[in-house]
Input
Amino acid sequence: MLQEATRAINSAFNNSFIKKLSQYLHDCVREEVKSSTFRNLKADKDNKWIFLDEEDTLFTQGLEYLRLEGSDPKLTELMIQSETSQKDKYLIYGYMFLTGKSKSGKKNEFLTPLLYAPCRLERNGVNINCMLTDEFLSLNTGALTALMKKNDDEDETEQLLEGLLDVVPSVPITQEKMDIFLTTLKSIVPDIDVSLNPENIIKEDNITKDFYNDKIDSENIDEIIEQEERAKKSAIKLDKISLTKQCAIILTKRPAVTAGVLHELTQIAEKPSGIYRETVLNLINEEYTQSKPTDSQQKSLADFFPVTPLSLSDAQLNVVKNVENAKLVSVFGPPGTGKSQTIVNLAAHLIANGKTVLVASRMDKAVDVVAERLNELGAPFLALRAGRLNYQRELSMQLQDLLANKVELDEGAENSILCDVSDMENLLKAISDLEKKSEKIIKLEEEWTGVNGEINLQKPQYANPKFIKHVLKEDEINLVESSIKSLSENLEKAGFWSSLKNMSAIGNLKKSLKINNFDVNNENLLILSNELEFAKLVCKARKIETEIQATGNIHVLSEQIRNMKKKQKRLAINILKCKRRQALKGLMQDPVKRQRLFVHSKSLVERKKNLQNRLLETEDFRPLLEAFPCWCVTTYAVSGSLPMKPGLFDVVIIDEASQCDIASCFPILFRAKKAVVVGDDKQLPHLSFLEKAKEQSFLSQYGITDRYQLMWRFRTNSMFDLANYYSMHPVLLDEHFRSLPPIINYSNKEFYGGRIKVMRRNDNSKKVLETVVVPDGKVDFDATRNLPEIEALVKRLHEIVVEDERKNPDNPVSIGIISPFRAQVEQLKISVAKVLSEHMMEKHQIEIGTAHTFQGDERDIILISWAYANNSFPQSLIFLQKPNLFNVAITRARYQMINFISKDPRELPEGILRSYLGFVQEYEDRFRLSKSDDFDENIYKNIFEKEVADALRELGHEVTCGVDIAGLSVDLLVDNKFVIECDGVEDKTPCKVSNMKKQAIIERSGLKVSRISKREWLYSPKACIDRVINNSLL
Output
């Protein structure tokens, strides 16, 4: 209790857990930026440096400061620039320089410090003092990583670097420490000359040019991100690499993509803890202090009516529902399960209910898709794509048009002018009522079949009844039953009253049974009782049939449900249009808000960045949110697009969160009251080049305990990993629409525990999975490049394109080519370009790359070159079997997947590749068997299904029984076009969902469902078949 109280008190003041996390994340980003910024000083003209004439004493002697000549104009300029632009630039003191000569012949093209520490310059009289601001030395891991990337195994590179990090010398650096360090360095990167030859010393400073020749702004920020990602992954190719014993003071820029994040993390750390209560971050504080959640008051969701314009699965509905009662919802989105569709539906529902939404992701593609799909709905000013300068200009123009009344808000509004959320409530209630009626009818049909079966069993026994010769009504049955009871009780009795009762009972029997006489004895009473039980069954069957007719015609009800669901999508769009029209009209009628919008429209294109930033923070931003309730932006562009206001948005949705680092998402969570975090930890993860030792020192420095260290590791944990810890309402999107079943089934089983429902049906007419073994394939000695395998793949690619051009010239298939190894990818690009023209490559959308290239992408046909042969290095197999990369690679194809390998799969070591290729072989064996005349894949759940199937086959229809769609066994698939569900007969294996739920799932997969009941079939098989065939044509 004391510990909990202490935590709560600390949190109440400015020493909150959020502050510690902000500072920790700030330092992680700052440190990671350092090593990636000056991988090569000469590669970036914005880097400035001055080499010092004297030998190093700061590191070797551990001095407090280094005294430098204050009259040096270059040094003075460097000091002034560092002081006036601390947000964008920082100083480091570098020691032991790596220099290199490139193959192009330019001398000393490569230059970077091997060891460094942050520093500052400070004038002291006539001198300038250089002082270290960090007691730890850092190793330039970015440069070393680039020098070491001769193979494709990044894990091996990291492991080798970890060994070097262990021997990085501490200050003061002794000769013994340096010798150990240099010996280890030479063993890891043998190409480096560590002799410290004075001839390699460089005396070239770089302080005369403008620091920023190319200004970084919101227009080119995404291009800079892409350039930095490429730089991180690229290797440096040099003829000679030398180490020189020099020291220099270096002024380098903070990358623009992280400068905003660093600034905002500092701002969050300085906020009083009470501010966090308005944001998602409060959830983190509450969990840390173990206090009662502020949103513990749960809303009742018994009657929940989502306004969603696109098709909605049960899992997607749960996402929309859960946002109502939770601050943070994590959403698992396996490949092809409709993550973007979920986000669009959620955003539409929130906007229709007057909420504001921020959609963010690491890369442009994810937010572009959401913004485009929302705006395609046709509602005015719905979603804004923010971040780049061209987006800001576009927003400014749209605001100016709106303020100038150039936007016609009433155009096309006749269909939506009166639409409201209550209309959706009424429609969904009506659909629910119809579904309940349909479910009731299906249950009654099953009950009728059971009763009718019993009637048929007993019918021979009562073919010639003695007493009951016509069908009795229910009241007649009750009267006969009471008469039998009375006669039985008074059979052995004498007296006036008994005789009177018997006379009355006999009279009732004569009247009900329409007989002239009834001899009262035990035998007749027994016969009558038995006949009455049979009459009861007949009456019950009639009664059930009457109830079915009173409830409704299920075929009519099903059609009504379909039409209402179509109307649901139109209504959702009309509600959005109406809500936007009302909001914009209200905005234009408010003079204060109009003035705010006018200021923002000018601020968006203001050239003075400082003025623009001040206006963004000080001017009321709410009118802009009323104009555009949904903003779509990348995580690193948020700071330049949106003010740093707590709870600015009602909900933030972070897409592809598995690739988002925690630090860039922290300010985004600060800007929202609730968050939905969408990702997949089985696909490509977040990558960081931060040293483990640095990360651990920051965790310890800010007192983050072991439990939270597991959750908040910046190097290894993504935003999605973090969300899974804090979310009490995780949702798995489980309906897969991308791939044919054989293509996705291995991933479903291996990575997702078989929980994905594959919504597409298998195409048995064509082989969709295939393995091509290249017998003479082998990899080159210097790189993982397999030329015979490339030749086989390119030949097959050429055949596919030629065949497709012949059969399908106007609707070409799209093709992707994947290999785990960069050398193989580069050679494939060269080889494919020799066979196919640029026009054909564009026409068939041919993309060649690693799994990283295809993350979030898909193609009709995927060709994979595994580039593994008998002479491959063992570590190559380790690399290509990395689960996340492997999962991405095998789940990109829609219709066909062809694997190329140069080793017999049966001879591969145990592992995921052998397992997968074994799965492919099993599929190919089954496919060959399915073409045999002896093969019957039909599995009937009951005899009624077989009767219907046989009748349809006699008419020439192709019928398949027991087809698996979305994890459900379809009764009958007819002509591969529509489904027949056979009602009234109990299946051998009961269905896991209700009948109407099953119908909804099947129809969501694109197949229309018709129903035939056993009762209808007994009346007229022909009428049933005619109806379903005609229904399929509608």
